[in-house]
Design brief:
Length: about 230
């Protein structure tokens, strides 16, 4: 993989070992605007890598440093997600500027990059997440069009469970307790439920806890979720 160094001044020192990868979309009108913002000292945002729509990969912050991509966030007891993660921005206008499917060339580059990072740092599939997973009340990226299934088939993300599903018949409180156990911040219950749906049941994001949601979450909490063959 060819990586183009495009340094950002927006970083500081880590206080935690690397154990996560967080995927974002840029959410701006074009790549040039996103790159300019990620390099602007006044913006105080950055990422480790940016993947353009044609598959070009830019390195903006060295992995050993703490990039500023996650904001206020939480995942599996980690509060300083920036310190624990590698942040990858994927060029896409996002929900505010004409959200669209991600090109095949771009996703191929994302998968190669994620596979390389995962192998070097020993990151588990459950810690390869989207921005909406770690900040459900604030973020929707990389969104319902992102092909998580393609990553899961290469063991680069958790699969959507499809086999031997059983409905645990949880109440809303029980579902949210299980969602918290899985890793989400459930302070805003509706936001957490919709973030879960956006990731694991993207065809219907309504914030309603139904049997399918309960079955998927239960399966994800088991030792070996099966799906996305």
């Amino acid at each position: 993989m060819t990586i183009v160094d495009t340094p950002s001044p927006n970083f500081d020192e880590r206080s935690l070992p690397i154990s996560m990868i967080v995927l974002h979309y840029t959410g701006m009108q074009d790549a040039e605007s996103a790159i300019a913002r990620l390099r602007d000292p006044e913006a105080k945002v950055s990422c480790h890598y940016l993947v353009a729509e044609d598959g070009t990969v830019l390195r903006m912050v060295a992995e050993e440093n703490r990039a500023w991509h996650a904001g206020k966030s939480h995942w599996r007891a980690i509060e300083d997600v920036n310190s624990a993660s590698i942040g990858i921005e994927i060029v896409n206008p996002g929900h505010d500027w004409g959200y669209r499917p991600f090109p095949d060339e771009q996703i191929a580059a994302v998968m190669e990059l994620v596979a390389n990072i995962q192998k070097r740092h020993g990151i588990t599939r459950g810690n390869i997440v989207g921005h909406s997973d770690i900040a459900p009340a604030r973020k929707r990226d990389p969104g319902e069009l992102f092909p998580w299934g393609a990553l899961a088939r290469r063991r680069l993300a958790l699969p959507r469970p499809t086999k031997n599903l059983m409905d645990p018949m949880w109440t809303e409180a029980g579902f949210c307790l299980a969602l918290e156990r899985f890793g989400y911040d459930v302070t805003d219950r509706m936001a957490a439920i919709m973030a879960f749906q956006r990731r694991f049941r993207p065809e219907l994001i309504d914030g309603e806890i139904d049997a399918e949601c309960r079955m998927i979450l239960l399966a994800l909490l088991l030792p070996r979720p099966q799906g996305d063959d």
